[in-house]
Design a protein that fits this description.
The protein has 136 residues and is α+β, with helices and mostly antiparallel strands. Helix content is 32%, strand content 32%. The termini are far apart. The protein contains three helices and four strands. Strands 1-2-3-4 form a four-stranded antiparallel sheet, with helices on one face. Strand 3 (104-117) and strand 4 form a beta hairpin.
């Protein structure tokens, strides 16, 4: 498979993952969100935010997904090394959030980093930590 074809395939898979993630955030689907997060502390943080009535995602639109170059050639990938990053990507997402404290709907453009490894594409929570102020 040619490098361009692999890039297009990986971009498609990243786009699918981003879409699934943000639809789950929109509908409060903690199980799906958690399945896309690698670290248990991130899974708990997202579950707390979704359970809290203070923030609600009311609308989401994926604007763009970009994949970076392969970090490890396919033939050199270690399918047992959970720390080996194969490719990184970025998603630009328009998010509409209802904040209970201000009783306002705010629209934000979020840049979310993603990483591909042996587990597939997932949010890079090391680059973009999940917390109460930035729960996605």
């Amino acid at each position: 498979m040619m490098a361009r074809q692999r890039e297009n395939l990986d971009r498609g898979h990243l786009g699918e993952g981003v879409d699934i993630y943000w639809k789950a955030a929109r509908w409060g689907d903690v199980a799906t969100l958690s399945s896309l997060l690698v670290r248990p502390e991130d899974q708990l943080a997202v579950a707390r935010v979704i359970a809290s009535p203070t923030l609600r995602v009311t609308d989401v639109r994926v604007l763009q997904v970009v994949v970076g170059p392969e970090l490890v050639e396919r033939r050199d990938r270690d399918r047992t090394d959970l720390n080996q990053r194969w490719r990184e990507g970025t998603a630009l997402v328009q998010v509409e959030v209802y904040a209970l404290a201000t009783d306002r709907v705010e629209s934000k453009t979020e840049e979310q980093k993603w990483v591909m490894d042996v587990r597939g594409w997932h949010p890079d929570t090391e680059a973009s930590p999940i917390d109460a102020d930035r729960p996605w």
